[in-house]
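As a warm-up, study this chain.
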Amino acid sequence: MQFQFLGTSSGVPTRQRNVSGFAIRHAHQKSWVLVDCGEGTQHQLQQTEFTLRKLKAICITHVHGDHTFGLPGLISSCGMSGRKEPLTIIAPKDVEHYVRSALQLTDCFIPFDLNFVDVELFNEPREIAGFILDRFPLSHRVPSFAFRFSCTITKLRLNTEKLTQDNVPKGPLWGELRAGKVVKLDDGRVLDGAKYVETTCEQQRVVVGGDNDTPELLAEACQERDVLVHEATFTKAISDKVGPGPQHTDAAQIGAFAQIVNLPHLVLTHFSARFQSSNMHEIQDETASFYQGQLFLENDFDKFQLQLGKLICVKDDSCD
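Now compare it with the structure written out below.
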């Protein structure tokens, strides 16, 4: 899997962070899925490799504006880019009312079908852009959901040890055998490439949470998982000061949960504008005091690859 953050701020954008947006793609697919679409998401996309023409679906975790205000503009740009393929939007029902009203009131012509799926009724996993997608209810001021992206990565490996044992000389023949071809050696032997190629299957799962004040609701979603992407809007001290009204998770909460479920990779996002580069270490330190796995605090445009059970940050200078 490959995924990239388009916005990592909660509520409002800052000079360093846009509001929520997250792009994810199967390694063997050109199509991709967008999770949440805060204002300015289409501007953020222009600085990435993700194109509107290849956008397969949009998943909206909940109705709040920092997760939805970018939808009408992005959909309009899809139309102006010449898109004809239908676009699936999995979202709360009110998001459909909002988007269709905005497009109608602004006289916006969309030359493709918008297929809205009510996330409340999204009860069975379905295949989208090479993923098996399902959702899990969360706890917030409005209905909120997490989306789990699962896939199987199949890889072919040439058994070079067996080739060496069988005295097959290195060179172009190895490439032909890896392609499954039958080849004839100079000594007259005939080799079937199928006998020298091994197939491996890797299961990958990434859970992307919406706003949520109860991480424990994701215990089932995080079974046999690789990565959890979750909010850490506040530290505990700030959360106690603000009170329970906003219904967000603090760094201590998410760190403790991730440790209890033995999560291998925890990726935090959706930070309050109170936190700038000078004090982001407070969230880092508080989470790490509970969680011993691999921890990332995200910046806009941080890009990741998940392979062989390891989460690799492509831009190591920003993924500290």
